Amino acid sequence: MGDFGRISVHDALGGGPVADILLWRNSYGGGVVLIGSTILWFLFERGGYNVLAFIANNLLLLVVILFFWAKSASLLNRPLPPIPELDISEESVLIAADEMHVWVNHAFLIAHEIAVDGNVKALILVVSSLWLISYIGSFFNFLTMIYIGVLLSLSVPFLYDKFQAQVDEKLIVAHKIVHTVVRQADIVLQMIPTAQHKQKKNQ
């Protein structure tokens, strides 16, 4: 923790090696991620290389190398290729399933609020979010958006950690404005009759 009331960005990001990379405390790891993602973006976007062909060719090369390595090792009495036995633990599968369970239930809850309850606020939030994603996606393809996401991940947390006090001041002002707008929008939305209100009136 730094100053009183200041949130540790490192702790907020999990405090592990990923946080070290995103905050450039591990400059080697951050550099590898940045250079690697830049090379891949240039290879697929500017070079015109196909992602599926790239993966298939690399796997083909790896399988051929491992096959001839194993054959030559048995003939020359050399050690076999050091391939680790990968075994996904049941615990990791359960953790992933629990995460998926939460996200799927949340999506179904939002769908229920829109379709059954007639929640206009949820409808507006979902429609505006999907429209924004579609609008931004029309300017870039999927790989470029992933590359932009990597660049933002390597820059935004680092800059926020350096200038947190100044950014927090601006965010507090923006939060007050958004809170006022949302409160006024809620007043307007409450005037719109929903399916729940109609059922209550009929009862």
UniProtKB/TrEMBL annotation:
Q: Does the keyword Transmembrane helix apply?
A: yes
Q: Name one Pfam family in it.
A: Reticulon
Write out the transmembrane intervals: 27-44, 51-70, 132-160
Provide GO CC annotations from the record: endoplasmic reticulum membrane
Alphabetical UniProt keywords: Endoplasmic reticulum, Membrane, Transmembrane, Transmembrane helix
Which segments constitute the Reticulon domain? 18-203
Where is this protein primarily located? endoplasmic reticulum
Q: Which InterPro entries match?
A: Reticulon, Reticulon-like
What PANTHER family does this protein's entry cite? RETICULON, RETICULON-LIKE PROTEIN
Protein name per the record: Reticulon-like protein
Which organism was this protein described from?
Answer: Cynara cardunculus var. scolymus
